[in-house]
Design a protein that fits this description.
The complex is a heterotrimer of chains A (305), B (369) and C (270). By secondary structure, chain A is mainly alpha-helical. Helix content of chain A is 74%, strand content 1%. In chain A, strand 1 (63-64) and strand 2 (67-68) form a beta hairpin. Classes of the chains: A mainly alpha (305), B mainly alpha (369), C alpha/beta (270). Chain B: It is found in: Cell membrane.
């Protein structure tokens, strides 16, 4: 039982990261209308941005949930950097293209490689760590529930919840959010209704990439940092988006939660005697995605927006 | 008229041929001058030919039929592993099977996987196929990496014989081999050169066979249906074409050609390991196809040559000048930039397909002048 | 008064020899009902018109009958064969070919190549015969080429044969679509707005070609917004409104029927 609780706790942390990644991917899919294969590497860019910033701000005093305040500042810097690079990429690469969604998809692979090659060029390919001492599991939870959860895990989940909550507020309660939803729903109709869709698209790149960057930072914090982490997780993020239903932000959240949980619950299969190693966790996420596509091509969340 | 005249070459084709010829002459000069080992040149040419096979395979899927297959590396890897597992003396499952038989083993493995991947994904939207095929390719790689008892895992497989190792005559040559006419020795060749030559002949035969096969099916009513599917699948359906069956055929044929490249790779390099299945291999081949000209077999062959040029060029550059960026990132950067620039500047590629593809014999003498 | 009685309330289904029979077709998208108990019969040898205000469900009906949508209820029969829920290509095999409202121009193909896709069951569409019996492939291909040229000349666009299909004007594309459909030797051609965006001169020509082909035995079912075109060409006319058949009758009678006028004046109620 404690074992299951432990897997669920891990699942919650991993889901938080996947959700942050899947929201941006889903936004691009619905508003810019293509499968963005550079999204994983945008996560990596954010993680490295925060890494550099942490070198500058790491010494700031105070701490929150076991992480120095400087880390949160660096997180914001990483998010801003990824957003800026995504907007630049949109303006310099995607927008001038006279091509269909498949052409954009192929181009995004080129963009992914350029991002990753740049990071490899500057930082090398070695594993890096944010210079934060790891603290042990929270004693209260360990003693009472026999579950090992670190403050760092809590920080990831809480931060992700704050970010997702802010997005929800933005989408539901602001004019900008209404315009975004309208554009995602039907770009042509939005345009004739007087919405400046080109601006909405820019905002979407900013939000999507900033959230992706946060996901990248937390992924690096959860494990470690190297130029391949983003591309490595991209397929799982795609699985979340597709399972949730392309074009639906809330579907992406639901899909992220589901896929993240499944990913971390994989060891359970071994516990009940099904000999599938944890190395296959992404593979299982993937097989589930293909199955969902076949049964419900519009995803489990269907028409939710 | 000129578009139909098989013998005529466009100025662009002549230019490309001239460029390739020029590079060939330079390389030969480099060999004569002693800068480049002859065996290494043979190896590079064989490697180019292997990438030509991969590109031609992808061209059947993406170029003819518009199928976005991002699992090129998986089919290449299956061909390579299939053959290696059957022939290598270090193989954990079988080993020491004749390479000629193993060739069919590798192809069979690829065909089975093609059907398994194709069945669920070819019914999906184009972009879903891209995501699903990349994911399923990763599943194959993870499987090979983790199932040590069948695949030797991360260590990879060694002890693979040359393709001709058990052939009569070719397998029993003594080295250095002396060429003689009527008892007079003319010249001799060392083992690496002979091996390189034999490999080149082998892959040359593969490339020629595949090219002729594709030339025929591309110009046929079969190829025409696929090309229709590429622009408008619904239209092909309304004209009574079972598009799923056509797509499946193209997917399997393309995958078999990729696996053939994998089989050759095994007996060229004599070592296979999981990194051979990295997604980057897939995207090298994509660059080759879109650069050469989507839908064009000659373009795919040109693209195959380009890959080796990128790989060797970056290596050479790294040796020659101190770059601020290592060869691997530089390669990745080049591949990335090439993709972006081709889609932006020349989406049809360098050698786009011929304007009209009709069964050649049916065109003969129908008063077309 | 006598004219009024010519107009049937709802569809006429008891036709002597229907090529196409659709009964009680239903399709919902989410909560939205696109077609609700839609039934039509197309008599062999007729040119049947299908009209109705925007959103009446005409295109949905076409998609249901040609297999692109799976119906939530109802039955489709082509030449007496039940094709409900079959794939579009299987339905096409029964002799019913459709065109699209906004055809995509085939890339990297000449006009005659595009036509050569039309014929059914070409030997050369299978891989093995390409190598085992190339002479059969060649013979068929030669015949198809000749037929394609004849067809293009018949539609007075013979000079376009070796032009890239992407260079065609919208009107020319409609002619090519019709020609390609004919290459498949259909019993019934479903045309979705054949003269939308076509200039009046070409539209007139197109009407003439359709009449000619009809006299040679091809049955037509045509969706069209251009009233003068469809009223001149088709008899009977079926009027669709809000997802089901409102009335059916000869053009003159349908034109002056009050229910039809109301439906059009009511405009798109969805």
């Amino acid at each position: 039982m404690a074992q299951i609780l432990q897997y669920l706790a891990n699942g919650l942390v991993y889901s938080s990261i996947i959700i942050l990644g899947s929201i941006g991917l889903s936004l691009v899919y619905s508003i810019a209308d293509f499968a963005n294969f550079a999204h994983g590497d945008t996560m990596t860019v954010g993680a490295y941005g925060a890494f550099v910033a942490f070198g500058l701000f790491g010494g700031m005093g105070g701490s929150l949930l076991g992480l120095p305040l400087g880390f949160y500042v660096s997180l914001l810097v990483g998010m801003a950097l990824a957003a800026a690079i995504a907007v630049l990429t949109h303006l310099a690469v995607y927008e001038p293209l006279d091509t269909d969604s498949i052409g954009l998809l192929i181009t995004s692979i080129g963009v992914a490689f350029v991002y990753r090659a740049s990071l490899m060029g500057v930082f090398g390919t070695d594993f890096l760590q944010y210079d934060i001492t790891r603290s042990g599991p929270i004693p209260f939870l360990l003693e009472n529930f026999d579950v090992a959860i670190t403050q760092r895990d809590v920080a990831i989940v809480v931060s992700a919840a704050v970010l997702v909550g802010s997005l929800h507020f933005l989408l539901q309660r602001t004019t900008l959010g209404r315009k975004m939803r309208a554009t995602a729903d039907n770009p042509d109709l939005a345009r004739v209704s007087g919405i400046r869709t080109d601006r909405v698209i820019l905002v979407m790149w900013v939000i999507g990439s900033a959230l992706a960057a946060a996901g990248g930072v937390f992924l690096a914090l959860y494990s470690q940092l190297d130029p391949r982490i983003g591309f490595g997780i991209l397929l799982v993020v795609f699985a979340a988006v597709i399972v949730g239903g392309i074009g639906s932000v809330y579907g992406a959240m639901l899909g992220g939660l589901l896929i993240g949980m499944i990913h971390e619950l994989t060891p359970l299969l071994g516990d009940v005697g099904i000999p599938i190693g944890t190395a296959y966790a992404p593979a299982i996420a993937f097989v589930i995605m293909v199955a969902v596509l076949l049964v419900k091509p519009r995803g489990i969340a269907g028409d939710l927006t | 008229m000129s578009a139909l005249d098989v013998g005529a070459f466009s100025a662009r084709e002549k230019g490309v041929a001239g460029l390739l010829g020029g590079i060939g002459v330079l390389l030969l000069i480099a060999v004569v001058a002693g800068v480049l080992a002859p065996a290494y040149l043979l190896y590079l040419v064989s490697l180019s030919a292997m990438y030509m096979l991969l590109s031609m395979g992808l061209n059947v899927q993406w170029g003819y039929g518009g199928l976005i297959n991002f699992s090129v590396a998986a089919f290449f890897g299956l061909g390579a592993y299939g053959s290696a597992l059957l022939t290598a003396n270090s193989s954990p499952i079988s080993g020491n099977v004749s390479p000629v038989i193993a060739l069919f083993g590798g192809l069979l493995l690829a065909a089975v996987l093609a059907v398994l991947i194709g069945y669920p994904t070819l019914k999906l939207r184009d972009d879903y196929l891209a995501i699903a095929s990349l994911g399923l390719a990763e599943v194959v790689r993870i499987f090979i990496l983790n199932e040590n008892q069948w695949t030797a895992g991360s260590a990879g497989l060694t002890g693979i014989p040359l393709f001709f190792a058990d052939w009569p005559v070719l397998g029993d040559l003594s080295y250095p081999y002396v060429f003689q006419v009527g008892g007079t020795a003319l010249f001799y060749m060392r083992q690496p050169v002979i091996t390189g030559l034999l490999n080149l002949v082998l892959v040359g035969a593969f490339v020629a066979g595949v090219y002729l096969f594709l030339r025929r099916i591309h110009r046929s009513p079969w190829g025409r249906v696929l090309r229709t599917i590429k622009t408008d699948e619904d239209l092909a359906e309304t004209l009574g074409k079972d598009t799923f069956a056509f797509k499946m055929q193209a997917f399997v044929i393309g995958s078999l050609i990729m696996a053939l490249a994998g089989v050759f790779y095994t007996h060229l390099v004599l070592y296979v390991s999981p990194p051979d299945l990295q997604p980057i291999t897939t995207f090298y081949v994509w660059v080759a196809v879109i650069l050469g000209g989507t839908g064009s077999d000659r373009g795919a062959m040109l693209g195959g040559f380009t890959i080796v040029a990128i790989q060797q060029g970056t290596r050479f550059l790294n040796d020659a000048v101190q770059l601020p960026i290592g060869p691997a990132p530089l390669r990745l950067m080049l591949v990335g930039l090439l993709i972006i620039l081709i889609v932006r500047l020349r989406p049809e590629g360098i050698l786009p397909p011929e304007r009209e593809l009709i069964w050649p014999d049916a065109m003969r003498g129908d008063g077309d002048e | 008064m006598s004219e009024q009685s010519l107009v049937s309330d709802g569809p006429v289904l008891d036709k002597a020899d229907p090529v196409l029979l659709a009964e009680g077709l239903e399709k919902r998208f989410g909560g939205l009902v696109a077609t609700d108990d839609a039934s039509i019969a197309v008599e062999r040898g007729s040119i049947t018109g299908l009209i109705g205000p925007n959103g009446a469900g005409k295109s949905t009906l076409f998609n249901l009958m040609s297999g692109f949508y799976e119906p939530d209820g109802g039955r489709v029969t082509v030449n007496g064969v039940d094709v409900t829920g079959k794939e579009p290509h299987e339905i096409a095999d029964q002799g019913m070919i459709r065109t699209f409202q906004t055809p995509r121009k085939p890339e990297d193909m000449t006009v005659r190549e595009a036509l050569l896709v039309g014929p059914h069951d070409q030997t050369g569409e299978s891989i093995v015969p390409l190598f085992t019996s190339p002479s059969t492939v060649e013979r068929e291909e030669r015949r198809s080429l000749e037929r394609a040229q004849e067809m293009l000349e018949r539609f007075e666009i013979g000079d376009l044969a070796t032009q890239p299909a992407t260079d065609l004007s919208g009107g020319q594309m409609k002619l090519v679509e019709l020609a390609r459909g004919m290459m498949a030797e259909p019993d019934l051609l479903l045309l979705d707005e054949p003269v939308a965006g076509v200039n009046p001169v070409l539209a007139d020509k197109l009407a003439g070609f359709i009449e000619e082909l009809n006299e040679e035995g091809i049955t037509f079912l045509i969706i069209e917004h251009d009233m003068s075109f469809i009223m001149r060409l088709a008899d009977p006319i079926i009027v669709l409104n809000q997802g089901s058949v409102l009335v059916e009758g000869p053009p003159e009678a349908v034109r002056s029927d009050e229910r039809v006028i109301d439906a059009y004046l009511g405009g798109p109620s969805e």
